Amino acid sequence: MATPKFVKSLGDFGRNFIFSKPGEISKAEAQPYRSAFLVGMRLGIVSTVLEVLAISLILVLLPKETAGQSAAAFLSNVGPLGIFFLGVLLIPFWEAFIAQLLPLELVKMMGFGDKACIAVGALVFAAGHYLNGGVGHGLCAAIGGGVFASAYMAMRPCGYFPAFWASYVAHAFNNVLFLYLVPLTFRGLG
Questions:
Q1: How large is the angle between the packed helices 5-18 and 135-155, nearest 10 degrees?
Q2: Pseudo-torsion of CA 151, 43, 39, 97, nearest 10°?
Q3: pLDDT class of 96 with cuts at 50, 70, 90
């Protein structure tokens, strides 16, 4: 039995990291939206952990005025329902479109590989957050953007929509964790 193109594009790291068992690869192709959802959830957790570590380092290494504030600081003015609607549903959808789907597909059309697409996704995501929140937020967003772009590229062999769904779910779940769990667990990071 020949190895599917999807498995080859992920490589051993991607196959073992994103999917629990190598046998699930065929399920990804058979059920791309379910697989994209699971990839997104897993990478949403990964991005949150990496960003909490990055924020911790930034708070220690950079002066507060250099680090800047959160680009999502405006959410404190919209109430609990507004926070959920904007921070979990609407903004991640818009950012997945503008910072993942568009740039990654353009870079892919220019003939670049997955690593270049992930790097561009991280840079575009970081640039937007830097402009709205400062150096610290931009650095953390580079990490998150790279993880969200990885979700996109992992599911891209299944099509645009599953790839977009994986990136969106990763970002939305990351925001759920950052808006609701991180402030309870790490008082200074939320």
A1: 130
A2: -40
A3: very high
